Amino acid sequence: MWRAAAAIAILALAGCSSDSPATLNRVNTHELFNEAYRQISDYYIEPTTPERLGLAGLAKLSSLDSSITVERQGNQIVLQKSGTVLARFEAPASTDSWDWGGVTASTLDAARHASPRIAATSEDDLDKVVMDGAIATLDKFSRYASPNAAREQRAERNGFDGIGVTLEPDETQVRILTVLPDGPAERAGIKPDDRIVTIDGAVASTLTRDQVVMRLRGPAGTRVVISIERSGVPQPITLSVSRAHIVLPTVTVKLDGRIAIFRITSFNQETYEQLIEALAKARRELGAPPAGIVLDLRDNPGGLLDQSVKVASVFLRGGLVVSTVGRRRESRREYPAELNRAIDGVPLVVLVNGGSASASEIVASALQDRGRAVVVGTSSFGKGTVQTVLELLNDGELTVTWAKLVTPEGYVLHEHGVVPTLCTADLGDDDGSVARAIQQGSSTGTGLAARPRIALDEKGWTELRSSCPAQRVDRAVDLKLAERLLQDPALYARVLSAMPIEAARTAAAAPQ
């Protein structure tokens, strides 16, 4: 969601024709929108209805052809072109997803016959227009992904079978942007900036970017023959590459003395395993556990909830990581730390900024609330909602908000986010800025920061976040401050104790 994509989806548009426009597949379209309206109505965190979704979706047809309008008139849904009524349909009961799916399919069919612009729109694109209109009635984190986009989202979450490269977004040639370390492409000798000439004999420059990606991907263990051009090499190089299952790396580690710095860029299905491997690597290189750990979550937009719980569990002795509350019974859950205790007792600093959201906020708030880490940086984004991903009949996906996140202390993350213990907003990178941040954060005093977060009303939260505004900047001062804390155990302990801890939270943090 946050890197150079392996593919840019190219959606073909159907050309206009003098023949009658093709009728939509009524059964599939009917069933698709029935499924979408039903699942949104079932799962969305606030009550909604198929009627509201269907009317909003169909109203978006005017974005394709401004002469087309769809509106409710009494007990009828009316399709008009330039004020002339083209079709009328009986309005179903507001909660009847099946019949609203039927009205949607029938209206789309009639609109295709009436409008050349709509007739020229591919079925996937037309579905997306209507889905986007329906989703627009929900919150800003709910969304629809068409089949091509959904396949890329699944690949990012769960991995894919391929050769392990990303491609430069260049329309004139197929240039390799990055090569996954120790992936099939690297093992075969492919390098960044290589230009792909042919793929299994097909000339790459004649293919769309989506076709290139589909040819590079394939079942793990199968081979693809690639011809590449490389600067300084006079003739193309032909390589046979064995495909493998690829999960994008999300964790990196570097050492600064005996301090290990782990950066997590997002949370996919292997983030926890990658963190465990990175911890083991740091131990091997140091010959012992690190003297201190920095967990860098800056600009981490989130990802999978279960992975954030597992990552937080690495540093906790049991107890609560996060809980969720929503309209459905199954959305109301508590997520305790898993008792793996991969690393225990090592001083920990977490870095966040205005780009830290969702799963990264779960980790930062849990470690802060539980008194396990000093949080450094600026206020996080404040995206404290949980989305469920619903696969549709057309291979697209609905991502629907269904719960809100609650921290171990008991405050709602949404729109509040994580406010650091030591704030670096608007500071420079000099030693004086480090000293000012420590001075401001090492004593709670008697002001707003001294109050438990759960005790704050909305006015209090606004003031608290304003005192450390969210900024999407990776400042060197963040890391300098973290290392200063970890190099001085007495200072670290003093700053850690400055965060107000309620009795209930203290009990939750006790060894279990």
Structure description:
It is built from 16 helices and 22 strands. With 512 residues, the chain is of the alpha+beta class. The chain has 3 domains: 26-138, no CATH class; 160-246, Pdz3 Domain; 251-509, 2-enoyl-CoA Hydratase, Chain A, domain 1, CATH 3.90.226. Strand 1 (68-73) and strand 2 form a beta hairpin.
Secondary-structure blueprint:
Elements: H1 26-43, H2 50-59, E1 68-73, E2 76-81, E3 84-90, H3 97-114, H4 116-119, H5 123-135, E4 143-145, H6 147-158, E5 160-162, E6 165-167, E7 174-179, H7 184-188, E8 195-199, E9 202-203, H8 209-216, E10 223-229, E11 237-242, E12 244-246, E13 251-256, E14 259-264, H9 271-286, E15 292-296, H10 305-313, E16 320-325, E17 333-336, E18 348-352, H11 359-369, E19 374-377, E20 385-391, E21 397-406, E22 422-423, H12 431-441, H13 458-467, H14 476-486, H15 489-498, H16 503-509
Parallel strand pairs: 14-15, 15-18, 18-19, 19-22
Antiparallel strand pairs: 1-2, 2-3, 4-21, 5-12, 6-7, 7-8, 8-9, 8-10, 10-11, 13-14, 16-17, 16-21, 20-21
Helix pairs in contact: 1-3, 2-3, 2-5, 10-11, 12-14
For this entry, give a set of tags:
Pdz3 Domain, alpha+beta, 2-enoyl-CoA Hydratase, Chain A, domain 1, 34% helix, disordered N terminus, disordered C terminus, six-stranded antiparallel beta sheet, 512 residues
